[in-house]
Specification:
alpha+beta; Thrombin, subunit H; Pdz3 Domain; 7-stranded antiparallel β-sheet; 25% helix; elongated
């Protein structure tokens, strides 16, 4: 009954839309529709799109059944229902584990049997099966997975079959408004074709550090995950990964991992079984409008280098803390995300040009990229090997930096121990922060160490006083501090009191 009523409502909307067209003429979307239809293209592509079926063993212990009332933590009703449920479980005994199945989509990228899908489609699965367009089921082996970009590569044995594979397109060339075709397995219905346009590019949906999604209004639903998004020439320009929906169904806001981000990951997973991302060896932060004057920029753009990893590619190239990276390997860098993605997509060992702004002057340096995964592994091993030899400073005379609203002192052994400041850190430690002062409003805290001011090294309290005076004399409105907190450096623009 409910399904029939829903179908009538949808059909009624279509009739209403037709009536509007008859009254007012073709809509803008129809006026731009390509000649003919997508039938020939869909017929060509459907054999390359597969359904992914996974099976997972789930233990029955410890989970509360669905449908029980929810009460605030600590409520006596919560204890009552929990006790009731536990008694029921003990009465039933330990039931055996159950098998849970789920469905997704994928596509054949190589006739040898390599299949691309989303990582979340096959994550935690005990068994993965690939169902071809002709309903043939094949056992699949997981070749490699990358949770960062949510991509996985599977391998099936063709067993004498000729598999249809599709080719990658250039997602950088796709334009907003161009037609796209999505093929997948929504709600387990099998090969389903939907069409739409590219609604937006470069979407950041907070899924991860490499977010750069294509947005489309082609209908994408549960089960479409891992399926391909094609351009009008039949090339894969994206991997359908997520939807925005309050109901769980498509409302015309779907997101796909762009092909140019996915392709190198897929190649690495096939070749190495894991990713090998480029690594520059910098910690970066966004450039704000308040920082532009101090950094010598005309506008807030680029990625500000907060820290350079000792011995890393950036340091070897001459990149320093306080530099603003504005171009990387010929690509303009508008934000930190853009640099993160560009570096990760660049092959390990490649030598690239990096354009930086240093104290208002443009420079170009050449950096040879390392491997991110190797650097992370090395960092874990070295994190516990820091020297702890005490280097006490004489005296604890505090100095007021009234224009910033803080009080500072030289780094002594006592203060290092009190605020857990490592011995190799140099600068002045903040011992007091004026409530509602400029520094407090920028979240500067007691125990932070000022290591630079206006991109000049601060070695003692005299340096801090002199630099602050120079900024005031130059009628600067903001002091760009580089502070260190819990071992991590960070640039903070602090307005000066007028």
């Amino acid at each position: 009954m409910g399904v029939m009523m829903q179908a009538r409502l949808i059909r009624g909307c279509a009739v209403a839309a037709t009536a509007l067209v008859l009254l007012f003429g073709a809509t803008a979307a129809q006026a731009r529709a390509p000649e003919g239809d997508f039938a020939d293209l869909a017929e060509k592509l459907l054999p390359a799109v597969v359904n992914i079926s996974t099976t997972q063993t789930v233990q029955n212990r410890g989970a509360m059944p669905e449908g029980l009332p929810q009460f605030p933590p600590g409520s006596p009703f919560e204890d009552f229902f929990k006790e009731f449920f536990e008694r029921q479980q003990r009465g039933e005994g330990n039931r055996p584990p159950r098998q849970v199945s789920s469905l997704g989509s994928g596509f054949i990228i190589d006739a040898r049997g390599y299949v691309v899908t989303n990582n979340h489609v096959i994550a935690e699965a005990d068994q993965v099966r690939v169902i071809l367009h002709d309903n043939t089921e094949l056992e699949a082996k997981v070749v490699g997975r990358d949770p960062e970009v949510d991509i996985a590569v599977l391998k099936v044995e063709p067993k004498g079959r000729t598999l249809t594979a599709v080719s990658w397109g250039d997602s950088d060339k796709i334009r907003v408004g161009q037609w796209t075709l999505a093929i997948g397995n929504p709600f387990g219905l099998g090969g389903t074709v939907t069409a739409g346009i590219i609604s937006a590019r470069g979407r950041d949906i907070n899924a991860g550090r490499y977010d750069d999604f294509l947005q489309t209004d082609a209908s994408i639903n549960k089960g479409n995950s891992g399926g391909p998004l094609f351009d009008k020439d039949g090339n894969v320009i994206g991997i359908n990964t997520a939807i925005f929906s309050q109901s769980g169904g498509s409302i015309g806001i779907g997101f796909a991992v762009p092909a140019n981000l996915a392709r190198p990951v897929v190649q690495q997973l096939i070749e190495f079984g894991r990713t090998k991302r480029g690594w520059l060896g910098v910690q970066i932060q966004s450039v704000t409008d308040e920082m532009t004057e101090a950094l010598g920029l005309q506008q807030a753009r680029g990625a500000l280098v907060a820290k350079v990893v000792p011995g890393g590619p950036a340091q070897k190239a001459g990149i320093d803390s306080g530099d603003v990276i504005t171009s990387f390997d010929g690509k303009q860098i508008a934000s930190t995300n853009a640099l993160t993605r560009s570096v990760a997509e660049t092959p390990v060992g490649k030598s690239v040009n990096v354009e930086i702004i240093r104290k208002g002057k443009k420079q170009i340096v050449k950096a040879t990229l390392g491997e991110l995964e190797a650097a992370l592994a090395s960092a874990k091993q070295e994190s516990s090997q820091k020297a702890d030899a005490a280097r006490p400073k004489a005296g604890r005379n505090e100095t007021d930096l009234a224009d910033l609203g803080v009080r500072v002192a030289p780094l002594t052994k006592e203060l290092r121990q009190k605020h857990d400041i490592k011995d190799d850190v140099k600068g002045v430690v903040i011992t007091d922060v004026e409530a509602d002062g400029p520094a407090a409003k920028r979240d500067v805290r007691i125990g932070d160490v000022i290591i630079e001011m206006a991109q000049s090294e601060i070695r003692n309290t005299d340096d801090a006083v002199e630099m602050l005076k120079a900024l005031k004399d130059a009628k600067r409105k903001v002091a760009l501090l580089q502070i260190q907190r819990a071992g991590e450096p960070r640039f903070v623009p602090v307005p000066l009191k007028s």
